[in-house]
Amino acid sequence: SDYNLEACEINRFSFLDYLNFLRSPQVLELIPYRFRKNLDGHPLKEEILFNDYYEFPDFTFPGAGLNCTSEDFANWIIALQNNKLFQKSTTLQTMWSPIKLNNGTATSWTRGWGIAKLRERHKAIGMSGGSRSVFLIYPDDNLAVVVLTNLAGSYPEDFIEEIAGCYNAEIIKADPLTYLRKNLKKVGFDKAIDFVKNEKIQNPKWSVQEDELNNWAYRMLAKNQLNEASEIFKLNVFLFPDSWNAYDSYGEILLKMNNKTKAIEMYKKSIQLNPSNENGKKVLNEINGQ
Questions:
Q1: pLDDT for 226-258, tens place per residue?
Q2: At which of 94, 122, 144 does a domain end?
């Protein structure tokens, strides 16, 4: 994986093997813990707090081998922003700059960072993992927020910007997805398209990224919030009518909601826009074969 390649590069340029690199002053060695109800196969009278650890194969260490506390996370973020982790002061800015396609168009992602909210004001960069943890750094606001939970499927990336908004209320309005989410919870998800139309009239520069909407809808789908997810997939098709993937995703949830006629329409549109959409063709064949 790319993370394993990065570990090899760290071994090469830091003159430390990867595990010793993690034990450097900026990346502390930590021991996680948890409560246990059983010990050596026998139930305990009451839960006891134990030091614990997980073993990962060596090749997964760069992506899944580090355990840390929020305090150590904060120290790492401070070291990162103070350029203590790089030899060149320009490295961090390069990492946080959008990747460009061959035609020169800027993408919505950066080098090695899973979340890149590259907006005009209150830019945020970070990463999420396991559907249970997330962090965002706001380099222009001298702010960072870290959310660590032990609940898989809690998707803290859906509310982390609201936490940041407690420190700077402008952040919520600056992030279109958070702003949209908060308002749709009030007016109803079935009003999503009308709300966006009205918002664009009042603020022509207001826009939301296609992949952010799609990912959010899939997170709601994972929590079985079919109606809400369906409205966001529908909104994505409205905002990005030339995206084959938007139609494909909308068709997927329509099929889950047993709306086969509309699902077929969406999959056909997706294939029309992208004749190489083999998954869409497969789904259509399965529907027609029923």
A1: 999 999 999 999 999 999 999 999 999 999 999
A2: 144
Q: Which DSSP string corresponds to 46-107?
A: EEEEEE------GGGHHHH-----HHHHHHHHHHHHTT-S-SSTTHHHHHTSPPB-TTS-B-
The domain total for the chain is: 3
Contact between 196 and 203 (Cβ < 8 Å) = no
Q: Which residue has the tokens 């305990």?
A: 44
Q: Does 102 fall in a domain?
A: yes
User: Cα(177)–Cα(185) distance, rounded to whole angstroms?
Assistant: 12
Torsion (CA) 229, 248, 124, 208 in degrees, nearest 10: -80
Would you say how long the chain is, in residues?
290
Q: Domain of 264?
A: 175-290
Measuring CA to CA, which residue among 112, 86, 98, 83 is closest to residue 6? 112
Sequence-distant (≥ 6) Cβ neighbours of residue 74 within 8 angstroms: 144, 146
Write the pLDDT tens digit of every residue in 20-70.
Answer: 665 555 444 444 445 566 667 777 777 665 555 556 666 666 666 667 788
CA–CA distance, 145 with 7 (Å, rounded to integer): 26
How is residue 75 written in tokens? 């120290």
Inside any domain, residue 162: no
Whole-angstrom distance, CA of residue 151 vs CA of residue 132: 6
Helices 226-239 and 210-222, interaxial angle, to 10°? 170
- 193 & 272 share domain: yes
CA-wise closest residue to 189 among 124, 251, 234: 234
The amino acid at residue 240 is: F
